[in-house]
Amino acid sequence: MEKLLIIEDDPSILRGLQMNLQLEGYQLFEARDGDEGLRLWRQHRPDLILLDLMLPVCDGWEVLRRIRDEDPETRILIISAKAHDADKVFGLSLGADDYITKPFALAELLARIRAALRRARIRAGSLPLKFGRIEVDVSGRRVLVGGKLVEMTAREFDLLHFFVTHPGRVLPRDQLMLAVWGSDHFGTPRTVDNFVARLRSKLEEAPEAPHYFETVRGIGYRFNPS
């Protein structure tokens, strides 16, 4: 289930989006100001963000800047009453993937959401991900080190894929557990530690002094691709 974060302070628009997007099968998170939106983005890492610009506390422009400073990949669709071409150009130049003005037709909004998510899936599934001597073939679910195939279980591959698509970020154990094992899994943080140890043994030149899979004491891990 793909995750959408709605950052919108207009109650009527928010209710309409909630109702219709839930019917489309998306998992939703909602924020009514910019600071809450940034907090929920960091906590849940949604696949797409619907972002209003005229927000209390921290406006949409600043939310967009902060997200793009840390994350070039998450799809961001601006929904705003600002209809001037200059605003649209500015939003796209800051890193938004699309811009739709209020009032909008629901069918058009849904089509744009589907298109943005489809582009994200195509990009994630078609490009090999490389770091050092290691290549992750996402579509083929294969991992090669120096051109040689390394055996991976399905869960090891899913954890590796999450790491390589979130480079440089501190990833708490509970976030890794939720993203890779799902909310209905009854594992413990130790489960994550054990699987990270497996990745290190298979991919690190010196597993006892890991370079790629760094421990962040008391929190979780950080993936360093360089």
Explain the layout of strands and helices.
Layout lengths: L2 E5 L3 H13 L3 E5 L2 H11 L3 E4 L8 H11 L4 E6 L4 H9 L4 E4 L4 H21 L2 E3 L2 E4 L4 E4 L2 E3 L3 H11 L5 E3 H9 L7 H15 L9 E4 L3 E4 L3
Parallel strand pairs: 1-2, 1-3, 3-4, 4-5
Antiparallel strand pairs: 6-7, 7-8, 8-9, 10-12, 11-12
Helix pairs in contact: 2-3, 6-7, 6-8, 7-8
Under the CATH scheme, the architecture of the largest domain is 3-Layer(aba) Sandwich
CATH superfamily of the largest domain: Response regulator
Which regions have little confidence, pLDDT < 50, spanning 5+ residues?
Answer: none
Distance between the termini: 31 Å
Quick structural overview:
The protein is of the alpha/beta class and 226 residues long.
Description of the molecule:
This protein has 226 residues and is α/β, with parallel strands linked by helices. It folds into two domains: 3-125, 3-Layer(aba) Sandwich (Rossmann fold); 127-223, Arc Repressor Mutant, subunit A, CATH 1.10.10. Helices cover 44% and strands 22% of the residues. It has a five-stranded parallel beta sheet with strand order 2-1-3-4-5, sandwiched between helices. Strand 7 and strand 8 (142-145) form a beta hairpin. Helix 2 runs parallel beside helix 3 and helix 6 (154-164) crosses helix 7. The radius of gyration is 19 Å and the shape is elongated. 24% of the residues are buried. The model has no long low-confidence stretch (mean pLDDT 89).
